Amino acid sequence: MERDELLAAGDRNLAAVLRLYARTAPGAAADDDGRVLLVSTSPRWPGQYHNGAVRLDPAVAPSEVLERAEAFFSGRTPGFCVWIAAHADGDLELAALAAGYAAVSDTGTPRMALAHPLAPAEAPPGVALDEVVDEAGRRAYLAVTVEAYADSFLSPDAAEAQLASVEAVHGPGVRAVVARLEGRPVAGAMVVGGGGVAGIQLVGTVPDARGRGLGELCTRWAANAGFALGAPAVVLEASEAGDPLYRRMGFTEVSRYRWCFGPPGPGAAASASPAPDASRPRR
User: Within the chain, where are the H helices?
Assistant: First the structure.
C-alpha cells in the first residue's frame, strides 16, 4: 500500500476498534456520523480508547470537533482525549491547545505497519497458544490484560469494558490469543480488521513472565491472524517498551498519534500558552 493510503486505512481501523468497544461494552455510548467519532465506554477512566474523540474527515473544522466532544462527554466522564494524527490533525491540535486542552505527550506513540506475514508463531516447550473462542478464553485474556497493564494505570473496570464479551475478542474481523505457561495465562494479543487493514491491540505479558519472548509470540500470532483476515497490512500503536520489539519484528514507523486532554477548565482559552508547531510530525 502507498503511504497515504496506508495512513488513511490505519485511521479507519482505529475507528473500527473504537466502534467495536462501543458496541460490546455495557453502557457504552457513541456519536458517529462518519465525520467525527465520539466513544465513551467508562465513566471513570479518561484514556483515549475509553473516552476518545477522533476526527475522521480532515475537512471538519477543529472548532466543530471540540464543541461536539465537549457536549458529548459532558456528564459522562471527568475527562476525555482528542486523538491527534500527526499526518492529518495539525490544525486540530493547535486549536485544542489554544483552547486550553492539555498535551498528553510531546512525542506521542508511533503508528507502525507491517506489509507481509511473519514466520508462524511457534510456542516453546511449556507454552501453549490458545485462540480465544469462548467465555473461558475471554476471562483468561481479561486476567492477563488487567495484570499486564496494572503498571500503566489501566483500571480493571476499564479493561473489563474493552473485553466485556466474547464478541469483543472473537467474531467477524476479530481474533485474540492467550499464551499459557504451564497452563497459566500469562500473555495475550488481539487483532481487529477493518478500514482496509488490521490493527493489533492489547498486547500484554504479566510481569513475572516477561523476558521470555511471549509478547512477541502473541504479536506474531495476531499479525498473521490479521493477514489471514485478508488485510494487506497490519498496524499498531507501539508503547515505549514495545517499540524496539516491533521494529525487530519488521514493523516500520509511518506516523504518530498524540492526544489532547480535555475538557479545558474555565477561562483556559484566555490563559493558554502558545501552542507548539503541530503542522508536521514531531520526532
Answer: 3-24, 62-73, 90-98, 135-148, 156-162, 214-228, 243-249, 268-271
